[in-house]
Amino acid sequence: xxxxxxxxxxxxxxxxxxxxxxxxxxxxxxxxxxxxxxxxxxxxxxxxxxxxxxxxxxxxxxxxxxxxxxxxxxxxxxxxxxxxxxxxxxxxxxxxxxxxxxxxxxxxxxxxxxxxxxxxxxxxxxxxxxxxxxxxxxxxxxxxxxxxxxxxxxxxxxxxxxxxxxxxxxxxxxxxxxxxxxxxxxxxxxxxxxxxxxxxxxxxxxxxxxxxxxxxxxxxxxxxx
Length: 225
Known about the structure:
The chain has helices at about 5-30, 35-45, 50-55, 55-75, 90-95, 115-120, 140-145, 160-165, 195-200; strands at about 75-85, 100-110, 130-135, 150, 170-180, 205-210, 215-225. By secondary structure, the protein is of the alpha/beta class. A 7-stranded mixed sheet has the order 3-2-1-4-5-7-6, with helices on both faces.
């Protein structure tokens, strides 16, 4: 092992230890359950891609979703289904916000590696949070009894109308997409908010809006299928 390799490993170790101490300090200062959970994730899963999950664009779009949801539909829900939930950051933001009264959030993701991280991040929520490894196309939405379905990654769904048709009529939804066509994994971007509204064709529209980001614009609709 070279001196440079040892130095890099030491720097990595120091970074994680410093990050853990800083986040624990912020948790004590703010009393935030989300920051407390983040400290646990940093300690337990040092290789988790937290830099992406908590970057300002990701957090900004989730704050926007949280605020517009409570303005449009209120904050009291019995059962929320979040699709493509990844590390469970959005549920953590809901649980950390006193405007919300939520009995259960199920975070669904097809990646088996993310569930444990999501459970750790939302450990303070106890039985009110559950991470599930499942294909969103294989879910029996009618039997789940969700009063809100959230999908903030509609640009990844090849046939959005076909997926929406799986939801029972009358289901409340929060949906996001974007115009980031240059990202290879985005297989169904939309050029405008109006195009997204047409694509989703909600029976009742409670909110529709755009959030301008540096490289793209994020679109969101909230309403009922």
